[in-house]
Model the fold of this input.
Amino acid sequence: MSELQPVMWKNNKLILLDQSRLPQEEKYMEITRHEQLIDAIKRLAVRGAPAIGVAAAYGAVTAAQEIKTNNLEEFKSELKSITRRIGASRPTAVNLTWAVERLENIAENAADIPGLKQDLLKEATNIHHEQIESDLRMAGIGAKLLKKGDTVLTHCNTGALATAGSGTALGIIKQAYSTGMITHVIATETRPLLQGSRLTAYELKKNGIPFHLITDSTAGALMKQGKINAVITGADRIAANGDTANKIGTYTLAVLAKEHRIPFYVAAPMSTVDIKIESGVEIEIEERPSYEVTSFQGVISSPEGINVYNPAFDVTPHDYISAIITERGIIREPYWS
Ligand code: MRU
Done:
C-alpha cells in the first residue's frame, strides 16, 4: 500500500498535506514563503517530530528562494535568521532543530549562492530519504518484539503522516500486521487535538488494519481486562538516559503499563535522541493555547474566562520504558548515558 505523503518537494516547491483538515479533507498546500511554513508547523498542519524536521529542511530551500541579495555573506546571514525562526517554531521535538542545523552547516560552507541553493536541496532530500530508510529499518526491528496474536495500543499519530516515511510506532504496527504477528490495534483518541482519532484511525483504516478507537481514559480499564499485550509510542525528544518526551498522556500510559506488567516500547529515529541532555528534566515542553481545551472543533465547550493548562507533551522517565527501538537496533538501559 502506498504511504500518505505529508511533505513533498515538487516542481521546486514545498507541498504539505494540511493535516488540520484530516480526515474530512485531503488538501495540499503550496509553501512559497517561510512564514507559511512557520504557521503550518505552529497550527499542526504539518506535525510529528520527524515530519516537521523534513518540512523544515525543505523550508530552508524555500527560504533561499526568497532571499534577493547577490552578496554571499548577506545571503548566508539572512538565511540563518530565517532558519533560526523555523527551528524555533515548536520547542519540544529535537528533529526540528537537528534538521535546521544540518542545513545551516551546508550554508556556512558554501562558496557561491547558486551552489549553496543546490546543496541545500540535496541535503533536504537526504534528510527525507534517510527518514524513509530508518522508518523501514525500525519497522523490521520493532516488529520482532511482538508476539503472534498480540493486541497493541498506540497513542497520538506516529505513522506516515508524522514522519514523511512509513512511520515509527505505527510503522512497526503496520509491519507486524502485514507479517501476521499482531491481529488488532487499540488507538487512543489523543485529546485535545485528536491525532489518534483523526489521523491514526485514518491511516489504520486506509491500511485495512483492524482496530478500535478508545477515549484516552479507557486505556487503564482495557489493560486491567488483559486486552493489551504491548504499548508502542513515538517520541519527540529522548534524553541520553532514555527519558522520553512524547504526546501528553504518554506518561500516564507508561505508568499504567508498568502496573499491569505490559511492555512499553518507544520507537524513534536517532535524530530524536538528544544526547546533549542528560535527562528529561532539561526538555522544554510546549504549552498550547487554552482554546484547544475549552472548545471542540470550533464549538465552545467550557465556561468563559477559566484557567486552562494545556501542555502538548509529557516526559516518561526511562524506568517506565522497556526498550527504545531505533533504526540502529533495540536500545535498553543505560541507553546513551
Ligand atoms: O503535537 P504533535 O502531533 O506533533 O505530536 C506528535 C507526537 O507526539 C508523536 O508521537 C511524535 O512526534 C512522534 S511521531 C513519529
